Amino acid sequence: MSLTAALAYARHGIPVLPVHAPDPRGGCTCDKGVSCERPGKHPHPRHGLHEATTDPRRIDMWWARWPEANVGLRTGVAMDVADVDSAEGWHGLCHLLGGEFPAGPRVRTGGGGWHFWFNPMGFGNRVGLLPGLDWRGVGGYVVAPPSRHASGGDYRWVHRPGEPLPDGPASLRALIEGPPPVHRHGPIAHPTRYARAALAAEADRVARAPVGTRNDTLNRAAYALGRFVGAGLLDLADTMRELEDAARFAGLGRAEIRSTIRSGLTAGRRAPFAPDPFGSGANGSGRHVA
Ligand SMILES: [Zn+2]
């Protein structure tokens, strides 16, 4: 049953969160029911991923409330996951790894995909790493066994996790690393992907900011992300929602959150991120100031 599994994951240092389950009558256990777009895959708690925990008392409370919950695991802490959802993704990963799969943990998802677990690499999520292959890292989560999939199948272990997890091969790391850090000179190959990773990482930083640094962290995050919004690489409403959620989780008050986000985003949008070969996007020169 999923509580036992959730507690076992937590004992291994993997932050857990309860995720809505597919409704046996169709759709999802959330309020949207049959019109839910991500049945059995999105978190129960209001602040989502940021609430993931290894605290057994919290996990007990959650499962007392939602005994049928699917088990969500936060990635980027104790493990990262290569998320394969098609045969194309499978072949792409296999090719990337030189024709072999790692001997590490492998999950067959109830929907016909696979999850391969690796040691955390420190990167954020990368959606569309290859066709049919996503990377779940910092700021991400996966649904884990014994959860149920909306298609009716269960998430099952093909190879159970042991110690230690395999390191991601260099070829995989190179692909994930993809766009170089902003401070390095050189073009950024995938600016949208880069911006999405920045959003996940900044929201995570805000959610975990210690008391005394929260407002400053939020302000810096809003400014940094505002530059992506200004460049058209992030959606303004999405960015605000994500930052607000993270800041509320950190414990900041609503009014303070709103004003800090607004001023940071406004300033950032005046200095749009410019992924050009000369790295001028990184130095804050603000040459695009409106
Ligand atoms: Zn739902």
Automatic annotation (TrEMBL):
Signal peptide: none annotated. Residues 268-290 are annotated as: Disordered. Residues 6-172 form the DNA primase/polymerase bifunctional N-terminal domain. InterPro entries: DNA_primase/pol_bifunc_N. This is Bifunctional DNA primase/polymerase.
